[in-house]
User: What shape does this take?
Amino acid sequence: MHDQAHTRATPGPAQLRWPELQGIAYGGDYTPEQWSREVWTEDVALMREAGVNLVSIGIFAWALIETSEGDFDFSWLDEIIELLHANGIRVDLGTPTASPPAWFFANHPDARAVTRDGVTMGFGSRGMASHSAPAYREASVRIATELARRYGDHPAVVLWHVHNEYGVPVGEDYSDHSVRAWRLWLQDRYGSLDALNAAWGTAFWGQHYGQWEHIGAPAAAPSVVNPSQRLDFARFTDDQLRACFIAERDAIRAHSDRPITTNFMANQHGGSDLWKWAAEVDVVSDDHYLWAADEEGEIGLAIAADLTRSVGGGAPWILMEHSTSAVNWQPRNVAKRPGEMARNSLSHLGRGADGILFFQWRASRSGAEKFHSAMIPHAGTGSRVFREVAALGATLGKLSEVQGSRVHADVAILWDFASFWAQGLEWRPSEDLDAAERIRAYYERLWRDGITVDFALPSHDLSRYKLVIAPAQYMLSAADAANLNSYVAGGGTLVVSFFSGVVDENDAVHAGGFAAPLEPALGILVEEHLPLRQGDTVTIDFDGRHYDADIWQEDLSVTTAQARAVHLDGPGRGEAAVTRNAYGAGSGWYVATRPDATGLQAIMTAVYADAGISPAGWPAGVEVIVRHGASADYIVAINHTIETVSLSVSGTDLVTGAVSEGTLMVTGGDVAVVRSPH
Assistant: This one.
C-alpha cells in the first residue's frame, strides 16, 4: 500500500520450532517433588482423563537436582520423566535457575541482588540472585548443561523451559557485580566518555564524568537521578537478563535439538523488551493472569494475547501459565466463575495460542502459593474446577485442525517498552500520565468495535496496516518519526495521542517543540503542555457535539492541520483539541486531551472512515476473533454476557458439531469455534 523505506521488518523468532505434539498443547506446571510416588501414579492417570499432553517440570527444583555444588541427583527426575513418557505425556523441561538453592548463597554470598536503596536480598523467596554475578552465571550454565546432557534427546522431552519470568521479582540489581557490568555495557554502547556525557546531558547539575570508574548505578539519591542514566540502566538490566537466558540456551543447544523458550509476561511486567527477547527464543510463550480489580478482565487478557502474538511475528505461541480460578498474590484474589476458565482459554487460542497451559497441575499444600488455584484444587477431582478442566481438555482435543492458523489485523497500536520506561520516570508534567491507561483506552474502543489489533514498534514496517495508533509514544527517535511520517505519506492513517514525540532516545526534548518530529504527518506543534488539576473536567466540541475530557490540554500551534475539535473551557480554551492533517496519500490525527469513552468513540468513528475500516457490529460483550488457515477460517465466538446472542456466522462448530447457515446462536457464557471453509 505504501512506498517507503523502513528500519525494521516483522519481528519474532528467527525460525518457529514447534514442539513435537499432536494437536493443541494442554497441561501446566507440574511439581512432583512436592508429592509422594503414590500421588505421581494418580497424577498421570488423571492427566490422561483430563486430556493433558504436556507438563512443565523442574522449574523450581534446583536444590533437589544439584544437592550441593557440582553434585547432582537425577534419580527422582529420571523416574517421573519415565512415568510421564509411559503415559504419553510430553515434557517441557525447566532449568531451575530462577531460584538458586541455599547452598549457592552460602558459597557465594556476594551473588545476592541489591535493591536501589542498598538492601541486600535474603533467602527464602524466589529470584534473589544478581544476574551479573559470575558465580550465578557459571552455576546456571552448569545445571543447564547437565540437564541437557542427560535429557537432551529423551523422547518425552519436546521443549525446554529456561528460567522463569525473567525480571520477576528481581530485575534491576545494584550490587558491585552489576555496577562493574554496567560500566562495561556503557563503554560498549558509547565508546567514549564524551559520547556518554552528551547523551546523558551531564552538563545539567554538574554530573560530567571524567573516568569510567566514577560512574555508578543510579541508586537512590537526595533528589531525582538523571533520567537518561535511569533509562540506560533499564536497558542494561534487560540486556543482562537476556544474556543469562542466551547463556543457558546455548548450553542446552550444545546437547539437544528440541525448541527452547522462556515464559514472558506480556503486559503484566514491563521490565523486559519482548521485541528483543522474541528474537532469541524458538517459540514464544507467555504467562497471563487476570487482574481481579478489572471488572472486564477479558479486555486486558486480549491485550496480553495480541501483544504476545505480535512480538512473535504472528506465529503460533504457547500460553505457558494462566489460572483455573483465583491467584494468590493480589490484594483481593477473585475466583473465576463457571465457564470463565474456558472463555479465557479460548480467547487466548483465538488470538493465536496453540498451547493452553496452567499454573499449576495440583495445588500446593505448603508455601506462599497454597491459595493459588490449580487444575486439581484442594477440593480434589470432585470439584467444579476439575470438571471444567476435563471438559476443556475434551474441547481442545476437537480443535487440532486450528493449530498453525494465523490471525490477521488491519490495525496496529504502538507498544514501545523503552518509551514506557522513560515516561514512567520522575518529574513528568503530571502524575496522571499513564502509558498503560492510554493504550487500554484505545485498545478497548477497538475491542468493543470488534476490530482485531496487532502491536508494533514505530520502527517496524507498518505498510500492511490501514490504521496505526500511538496512544503513548513519549519517546520517539528521529528515525522512527521519519518512519511514521513516511507511513502516512504512503497512504496510512495515523492517530497520535497527547504527550507523544516529546523526547529522543536519550530522553532529551526534541528541538523545535514537543511533537516536532511528527509535524509533517500531524501538521501541528505543541508549544506548551497544559496539565489539569486533580479532578478538573473540561469540555470539547467535536463535530458539533460536546464531550467531557480531563487531566490534559495543550497549547497547539496548528500549521497545516485542520481543527476537528476545540476546547470550550479550561486553560486551553479556544485551542484545538483534535486535529486532522492531510499528508501525502494519508492522514495524521492528533488528540491533545483525554476524552471520555463517548468522546473517544466519536473520534474513532471518524478515524475509521478515514482509514477505510468498519466496526464488526457484534453485540455488546461478545468477542469474535478469526484465525485463518490454508483451507478454512476458524471463528472463535466468546459470549461474555448472560444472554443468548445471534451472530451472522456460517460453518460447523468444531465443539458441538452443529452447522449454522448464516446464523450462529451462542448461549450466555459459552464459546463456539466455527470452521468456515474458504
About this structure: The chain is about 30% helix and 20% strand. Residues 19 and 158 are 5 Å apart (CA to CA). The chain has three domains: 25-403, 411-611, 622-677.
